[in-house]
Every structure is written in C-alpha cells, then in structure tokens.
Amino acid sequence: MELMHSTKDEGREKVLLVILDFKKIHSDWSLKDIEEEMKELVVACDGEVIDTIVIKIVTPTAGYLINEGRVQGIADLVAMKQANTVIFSYDLKGSQQRNLEEIIKVKIIDRTQLILDIFARRAQSNEGKMQVELAQLEYLMPRLVGKGIELSRQGGGIGTLGPGETKLEVDRRRIAQRIDKLRQGLKEITANRVVKRKKRQEKSVPAISLVGYTNAGKSTLLNTLTGAGQITRDGLFTTLDSLSRQTALPNNQKVIISDTVGFMHDLPHHLIESFKATLEEVKESDLLIHVLDVSNPQFRNLHQAVLTVLKALEAIDKPTITVLNKIDRLDSRMGIKDLVDSFSPAVAISAQSGENIEQLNQLMITMLEGMFNEIDVYIPIKRMDLVNLIHTQGQVFAIKYYESTINIRASVPAKLAGLIRQHAVNNPSV
After folding, report:
1. pLDDT > 90: what percent of the chain?
2. CATH architecture of 204-369
3. Whole-prediction pTM
4. Does 142 sit behind a cis peptide bond, omega within 30 degrees of 0 on the bond before it?
5. What is the CATH number of domain 9-165?
6. Most buried of the four, 12, 277, 413, 414, by CB within 10 Å?
C-alpha cells in the first residue's frame, strides 16, 4: 500500500503523540527521552508530529487505558489540529484501540505498530520481508475479533503498511495458514544459514558481529573496517538486512565481520522472535563489537538496552569490545579516557572519519589472540592442502621443507590447530 498523503506539508501524515506516564512504573527513561524517541520513530515513517500531550496514569482503565475524559480531550485536540493519526507511546489492547477510534474518529496506533511499520518500509531482502510480515501477523492475530475502522483502511499511512500488502479483512484461519507458511519458509532459510555457518566454522575464520542501538553507526563502521559500501543515513532502523564481509586485520588475520539489525529499548517481542534466525549470527560469533553512540546524552541507557536484548539472545557472555562511537560529534573530549576505562575493553572512535580505527584493529587482534594457538609441527609433504590452510587462515612465522615433511611454525585458529596436530608427524625423517 502507498503511504497516505494529505494535501499539505508535502504529504506528511499529521500525528498527535500521546506520551503515557505510568506513576507505578519506574524507568530510567525520562518522559522527554521517550517523547524524543517517539518523534524520531514518526519521522522514520515520513510522519510529522504536530503536537504532543502527556497523560499521567495511576490506574489504567480496561476500556481506553486512559480515563474517558482524557479521550474526549484528545478527540477535541485532533479536530482542532486536523490530525490524521494518534500514536500512543504504550501498547494498546485491541479492544482499547477500537474504543479509542470510536470516539476520536481517526486512526489510533501504538508504539509496536509504529516500529513494525518502519521495519516494513526498511526490509529489502526476501528474508527481511518475511520476518516483518510474520511479526505483523502475530501482532494482528489477537486483535482480529471485532476490529473497528482500522481493519478497513485502504488509504495507507503510518501503521497501515500491511503484511504482504494484502487486505486485512481476513479470518483467523487464513492468517494462521500464512503464519505457518512464513515460519516454514524462515525455517528453511535458517537451515541454509546453518550450513553456511558450519562451512565457515570449518574454515576456522573468526566471526565478529557488530551490535548496538539503532543509529549507533554500525553500518558506517562496517564500511570503514571492510569497505563494504553499505548505504548509510542518519535515522532509526536504516539497516535491517544483515551483511557480512570478510576482511584481514593488520596482522593478516582473516575475519568475517557482520552488521546486524539495530536494537531498541522495549523492542517488540514479535520482532525479536521473528528476527531470531538472523540474530543467531550474534550468538554464534566469536567476538562482539558493541557500537555505542557516545554523543547521545542517554548513551548509558542505550548501552543497557542492548545488553537486555543480548541477554534475551543468550549472547550476553560473549567476548565483547565496546566501541564509543561518534566522538567527532562531542563538544568536549574531557572524560573520554575515564569512559573507555569504565567500559573496558573499549576504544573511542569516529567510524565516520576513521579516527582511532587503528586502535580498534589492535584491540580486535588482542581479543582474538586467545582464540589462536601457536604450532610448530612437521606435516607430510603430500598434505600441501594443510599448508595452504595455515597460510590462508593463520600467520606463518617460519617454514622449512624437507624430503618428506614440511616444518611450519605459525599462529592459527584453535580449531585448525587441532586439525593440523591430528595429521602432524614426529620428525623430518618420517
């Protein structure tokens, strides 16, 4: 479906934001932080926030989440501001969404729908589109019964970029069948990825995954480290499809570096589940590089949000380098050294300008050293394939050729070292 266009403001959809302040819920995120992030999400959907209201909630109501008087107040503001859409910062139940639309008379969506819409716009690969559609349908499924005007929307707009661009007037059986088909398709893709990962592991090339909050600069760093040429731009969730590139570190050690989808605090459960196949790369990596936008005043909260997702992926204990990125945007560099020490092992860089990339490369070499073994072995001369493997995947220090054997001293990945030792012989005379 096409994005719904109004006749003003170059077609931007006019959005009224409703920020909910739950007095009984403690959060490290201030209302201002939540508001700013919601605004960025709306911009990512080509929408325009025309006004924001904050509603304090002591006791949520079953019918509307907020009290009915505030609902009427929103309806009056929508009419006055001529808003097209109202977006709540907290997830709504299907019944609450219906009830709100009956009074406010415009489209009502919540934060999860907003994020799902961004993912639908950003997905480029077949796998990415399947993952997003699955998340959308799983979100829609419990909201089917008695849905109101949003089920018959055909005009498009934020929150209506529908799964597979099909009409939403479908019954549970058809959606369930589509969910099963998507799950099976993703299962097959996952199986293919496992085969590829196994082949890569057999070659013993270390895998490094870039992780971080959305818009932290992961794709820019991938470009800087590997020359990947990944298209980058400032904004939330600009990269959804994972990209892997092989490169060599300054010590000639070959590694595979992978970009991953950006994380976010309270990332919708459906998205995490749908993207788990892709995020398995993180779990299987030998080393993580946690890219953190240190120019963001809330960087500590962003850091914690990423750790929460890594914990959900069972990857929290992976060897990790914290990269304090975007130091070129800082007004002052005071305190950077203390930050690096507090996040150790860490390095402060600018992925955009390349500042301190050499330090990052050296830190990667140091972190990977523990995954390598030094060998000093004699290999039968007929096993030149093993010698080639050592040259390809390790660092050769010395090599001597004898009549029937080859003596080679090198640093190689631990798995390869085991393989080499299995085929090594005792001395040159063998």
Report:
1. 43
2. 3-Layer(aba) Sandwich (3.40)
3. 0.76
4. no
5. 3.40.50.11060
6. 413
